[in-house]
Amino acid sequence: xxxxxxxxxxxxxxLVGACGGDDDSGGGGGGDSNExxxxxxxVIPIADVAPLYLGMEKGYFKDENLEIEPQLAEGGAAIVxxxxxxxxxxxxxxxxxxxxxxxxxxxxxxxxxxxLGGTGPDSAWDGVVVPKGSKIKEPKDFEGxxxxxxxxxxxxxxxxxxSMDKAGADYTKIKYVEVPFPEMNAALEAGRVDAAWExxxxxxxxxxxxxxxxxxxxEETAPNxxxxxxxxxxxxxxxxxxxxxxxxxxxEKSLDYAQQNPDEVRKVxxxxxxxxxxxxxxxxxxxxxxxxxxxxIQMNIDLSKKFGFIEEEPSLDDMIWRGE
Amino acid sequence: MLPWLGIAFMIGLGELLTRTEMISSRHFPPPSEMxxxxxxxxxxxxxxxxxxxxxxxxxLGLAIACAIAIPVGIVIGxxxxxxxxxxxxxxxLRPIPSVALIPLAVLIWGSGLExxxxxxxxxxxxxxxxxxxxxxxxxxxxxTDTARSFGFGRGQRLLHVTLPSAVPYIATGVRISAAVxxxxxxxxxxxxxxxxxxxxxxxxxxxxAVDIMYALIAVTGLLGWGVNIVFARVERRVLHxxxxxxxxxxx
Lengths: 324, 251
Known about the structure:
Strand order of the largest sheet of chain A: 2-1-3-10-4
Order of helices and strands of chain A: HEHHEHEHEEEHEHEHEHEHHHHHH
CATH superfamily of chain B: MetI-like
CATH class of chain B: Mainly Alpha
Number of strands of chain B: 0
Distance between the termini of chain A: 66 Å
Largest sheet of chain B: none
Order of helices and strands of chain B: HHHHHHHHHHH
Strand content of chain B: under 5%
Shape of chain A: globular
Structural class of chain A: alpha/beta
Oligomer: heterodimer
Number of strands of chain A: 10
Helix content of chain A: 40-55%
Radius of gyration of chain A: 21 Å
Radius of gyration of chain B: 22 Å
Shape of chain B: elongated
Strand content of chain A: 15-25%
Largest interface: A-B, 42 and 38 residues
Number of helices of chain A: 15
């Protein structure tokens, strides 16, 4: 009997898979705005990309004859190559990754704002968390400490270094350890690292476990820091300028809507992540707005150079697509 | 009875270690919570779609591996000249971990089903190819000579002597490869983000929903277990005439 059920379950599963499997509608799409263009957008399943999902729900992309197919990638590192190779039409990536990519002459350009740091430490959605009972009380105490960041030589160490520098502490004495965000709190509790630079939802989890946030590197580097943006390959932009413009309009509308409707944001995050509802109610949401805040992108370029992540500074004009 | 005891012991141990916080239950949930999360998952359409996607990648990967490894194995195994000339190539390719070929797969096929199928097929091909080779080479020389002296041609010898002798090896190879293909299908979903259980595991991980994450991990284990059972049964039924199976039945 059990065997028959198993066989049936397998058969059903195969059938469902076969039906749901045809996502091969690679939207290269021409310039005619009357036909629907399908866009594969490489994103990470985190709160930052909520406006994209909210915009889909609200029909902002449909209004522009766009159909969005979010492609959930394991991390930002997988998105850039997929966009360059044309597998995805657009992607979501932090600014430092894009600075490094542009500096290495990868043909990618920022097309729209993605997510910003808070207006100040009070609305911070990132922080350097130390466990309960830690001796680290102020930035200076991080000298000689091991700090977990999700990626070495990227935006985490960039903002951490700059915040240390601003506080008059020696950032060169920090020992950075690469730990994925979801495992940071476990690493903290097990004492494998002295501190961890976390973003939501790990940040809330770390504080709930008794940790304390000593610094808020995004906000201390600059208020309203542009953290991540949507981008495309130069080739795609050149051949589909109209599509990119339509996407830019729709996502900017979505960003503003998301900023004004936090309750809807929390609800939509629950649809594409597995963050439990009770955690979702408590996390600090990031900041969204249409403005790219270009001076902070320039700052990101300068800091990437300052901390040795890049050798050649790309220009803002090279990094950002500003329309025809 | 005994297998159930083993399973009960493992679950009990997990429960004990997490309830006593010897392993932090915030980061590794007690099995009871895992099962509760699993029960919730079973009612969602997303879960079954993910299972379907995984099984689809697995089935295609395994089918391609069979279509390549069995004929190639028979051809190479039947000719010692051919075998000696390609052996170095096979021994070079065989130990390459499929996972290391992910960048190549993404470059050529992108992040969808094709990459997953390629990785599963690549990994599953080698054990099956080796089993087929051994099977074909392990034919009783007396039987081959006898067939030859009775005037059997090359094709007839293959059909009536070599294949029946090699089939048990091939069947074992298919069973091993089925497990390997499943592992690679899930790995591809985890790393590349192709739709399927692996991707769902990753989403749960990013959301720090450890109960769902481990529930899904348990599901991949159950799938592998199910696949193995099905293939072992099929193997026994198809090969009921073979001495190796008769011994097993006699037990």
